[in-house]
Write a structure and sequence with these properties.
This protein has 270 residues and is α+β, with helices and mostly antiparallel strands. The chain has 3 domains: 1-51; 58-201, no CATH class; 222-269, no CATH class. It has helices at 7-51, 76-82, 145-156, 196-221, 255-260, and strands spanning 96-101, 117-125, 128-136, 163-165, 170-174, 178-185, 188-195, 224-227, 232-234, 249-252, 264-265.
């Protein structure tokens, strides 16, 4: 016989189904809300990370009175025009040179135009300033790293993207083609700006010189050149009449190695 439910049982069944429906709906709504919330948080973090970066280039930086008329990219002649007593170091093989200015130790300098500077150091690449370092004394208006960062950010219109750097509360800002570091040196604030493009050029030149040196050293260690086409080899001081094509050229360190590989000495070298 088919089972017959009483009215109370039918009511309980409908109530149970309705309860399960609403429970499921609330559960899925909660998951949906959580997913939206996580997405908003991730978007917020991404937006903050993008806002907390520096996309400025050296060409974007304005003149700042705290840099006393000096700027990146100045020529040696322009630096000397600013401080006539400046002397420059010898230019090395990579196109680099250095110099520094210490107003307190050079009585010929006009200290009034460099008030607050203890030492000023320059790096040059191809006759242009690629690095500027200011060491300020205790008379300079900003005596702490936070005060300096706040002040120089306003003067150079820098974004709030500074990050901790090394010890003593130093701060560093990395932008599109330059890097700035602020710290405390000899109990006074310091400011260092570096042209990263110039650093890359120097690195490339050093690598090119190293590659050239390695190639020369390799050639010095190779004494035998052989020709795949005719199966002959030539010793140092005995060159073939015509240059061997690169695809046919084989290098050996000794006659023994060449002969083990099946090559014979060229008749002109016997």
């Amino acid at each position: 016989m088919p089972k017959v439910q009483c009215p109370n049982q039918q009511h309980l069944t409908k109530k149970t189904l309705a309860s399960g429906y609403w429970t499921s709906l609330v559960f899925h709504f909660g998951l949906w809300t959580l997913a939206i919330g996580l997405l908003l948080v991730l978007c917020g973090v991404s937006t903050f990370a993008q806002d907390n970066q520096c996309a400025l280039k050296l060409a974007d930086l304005p003149e700042a009175p705290e840099l006393f008329g000096f700027r990146m990219g100045m020529t040696t002649l322009q630096v000397k025009a600013r401080v006539p007593q400046t002397t420059f170091g010898k230019v090395n093989g990579f196109g680099m040179s250095k110099t520094s200015i210490s107003p307190d130790f050079n009585p010929q300098m006009d200290k009034t135009t460099l008030a607050g500077i203890r030492t000023l150091s320059f790096d040059f690449l191809d006759d242009r300033v690629s690095s500027l370092w200011f060491g300020y004394d205790d008379s300079f208006k900003w005596q702490t790293v936070p005060a300096f960062v706040t002040g120089i950010s306003k003067s150079l219109r820098l974004p709030d993207a500074w990050k901790p750097w090394k010890t003593r509360g130093g701060q560093q800002l990395k932008c599109a083609d330059f890097q700035i570091t602020v710290g405390i040196v000899a109990e006074g604030p310091s400011f260092h700006i570096i042209d990263q493009s110039a650093e890359q050029i120097i690195t490339a030149r050093r690598q090119a010189l190293q590659d050239e040196s390695d190639a020369a050293e390799e050639m010095e260690t190779v004494e035998i050149v052989a020709n795949k086409r005719d199966g002959t080899y030539y010793v140092a001081g005995c060159l073939p009449a015509q240059a061997i094509d690169e695809g046919d050229r084989v290098m050996f360190k000794s006659k023994e190695d060449a002969e083990k590989a099946g090559y014979k000495m060229a008749k002109k070298c016997e």
